[in-house]
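# step 3/5: fold
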Amino acid sequence: MNGKLYSDDELLLLSGIQHFCFCQRQWALIHVEQQWSENLRTAEGHIVHERVDDPFLSESRGDVVISRSFPLVSYSLGLTGIADVIEFTRSDKGIAIPDRDGLWCMKPVEYKRGKPKIDERDEVQLCAQVMCLEEMFGIRIIEADFYYNEIRRRERIAITDDLRHRVQLLANEMHKVFRNGITPQAEKGKHCILCSLIDICVPRLTKKKSSVRNYIGNHIRDACAPDT
C-alpha cells in the first residue's frame, strides 16, 4: 500500500465489501440509503459473531495468542472495521507485540454462519482484513482462515496478488457509488432469493423502467377488472 488516499471522514465499513461483491444494489441500500432487514441467515450470523466478538478476551495456547474484535483500518482502501480474531503465532519472521516476548506473525480468522461460498464474497472480505493489517504493521501476510459454523471447520485461503487487486477495485467502486449517492439498479438473479432486502429492493420493479410501467399497469388493470 502506498500513501494515504482517504481521510478518516471518508472511511467506509470493511464488512460492506462482502455485500458489494454479492450485489452492489444491496450494499447501496444498506450503506447509502441506511436500510436493513433481518432474515434467518442474518440472525444466525449475529449469533455466531457474538460468540467471538469479545474485545476484552484474549487467549494463549502455547506459541499462539488469540486477540478478538481487533480494530482495522486502511487509508489506501478507505476501509475500517473489526476482525473477528487475529492469531499471533511465535515466529522469527514476525513482529513484536506488547507484553509478549519474542516475535509474532499475524493472521486473521473470520467466522461465518454457513459454509464456503461458490463466489468470492467471503474471500474479498478476508483479504481486505489482511490488507489492513499489512498497512497498519508494515508486514506481509500470505494466507488467512475462515471458520464456517455449518461445517465446523476451518478453510484456509491464499492471499494472492489477483485477490488483492480485486479488493482494491471493489473498494474504489464502493467509494465511487457512495460519493454519487445513487443506488444501482437491480440485477435480478438466483442470488436475490438469499437476500434479506428482497422486499425492500423489489428487483422486479427496479431492473428496467419498462418493468415498472408494466407492473403498475398490470395492477391497475387487475384493480379495475370487473368481478366474475
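# step 4/5: annotate
Confidence is low (pLDDT under 50) at residues 38-49, 52-57.
# step 5/5: archive (pending)
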